[in-house]
Amino acid sequence: MDHATNQLQRIGLKLFIDDSAGIEPRAVVPIFHRWIQTHAIDQLLIDVADYDHLPEGPRVVLVAHEGNFALDNSGGRLGLQYVRKQPIDGPLPARLRVLFDTLAHAARLLEEDPLLAGRLRFRGEELEVVANDRLLAPNTAEAFDAVQAALAPLLAQLYPGETCTINRTPDPLERLTLTSLAPDSVSLTTLISRLAG
C-alpha cells in the first residue's frame, strides 16, 4: 500500500550557500525585485518581504503564486529555499525533480547576477528537503523512509555512482526534514548539467 507521503505537495527544498561567500541576505532584495519586473522565473512573482531583522528562518522572501523563494537562515545556515504551495501533477519522485529544477534555476540566476559580483556560490553536495504537511508526513521513521525512497531517483541523477548520507531531524515536534550529503563537493553548474544529460 502507498504511504501517505506520496500525496505530499507542500515541500521545501534548500541549497546551502558556501560559508565563504559572506553574502548579506538583504543584498538579494533588489535582485528579487528585478526578477518580478523581468519575469526571470516562470512563475507568477508577486512581492518581496524583508525579514532580515530575524536571526533565523527566512530572511528575504520572494513571494510567488506557485511557491516562495527565500534566502533562509534556519538552523544558522544560509541557503536558498523554494517552498511549493500549489499542487504539481505526477508521483512524488517526479514532483521532487520539478522542485529541484525550479530551485536550481533560481540559484544559478543568483550565482550569475552581476550585482553579487560572483561572490555567491552554492554547495551542490548538500540538499535539504522539508515536508510542510505534518498530517501526510509526520516526523517519524516510517515517513522518513518513504520520503527518502521518493528522493532516491533524484539523488541518483545528481550524484551518479555516489552514496549520499541522509539524515533526519530527530525532534518529532519539528517538521520532517531530510538532509542529503554527497561524499564529494560539486558545483551547481555540474548538478544542472547532470539533470539535463
Please write out the topology.
Elements: E1 11-17, H1 29-38, E2 45-50, E3 58-64, E4 67-72, E5 79-84, H2 92-112, E6 122-131, H3 141-158, E7 165-168, E8 177-181, H4 188-196
Antiparallel strand pairs: 1-5, 1-6, 2-3, 3-4, 4-5, 6-8, 7-8
Explain this structure:
The chain is an alpha+beta fold. The protein has one domain. Helix content is 29%, strand content 26%. The chain has helices spanning 29-38, 92-112, 141-158, 188-196; strands at residues 11-17, 45-50, 58-64, 67-72, 79-84, 122-131, 165-168, 177-181. It has an 8-stranded antiparallel beta sheet, with helices on one face. Helix 2 (92-112) packs across helix 3 (141-158). It is globular and about 45 Å long.
Helicity level, as a percent range? Answer: 25-40%
Strand content: 25-35%
Overall geometric form? globular
Rg result: 16 Å
Order of SSEs: EHEEEEHEHEEH
Q: What class would the helix/strand composition place it in?
A: alpha+beta
Query: What is the CA-CA span between the terminal residues?
Result: 33 Å
Number of domains: 1
- Number of DSSP strands? 8
What is the arithmetic mean of pLDDT?
93
Strands side by side in the biggest sheet: 2-3-4-5-1-6-8-7
Discrete helix count: 4
Largest sheet: 8 strands, antiparallel
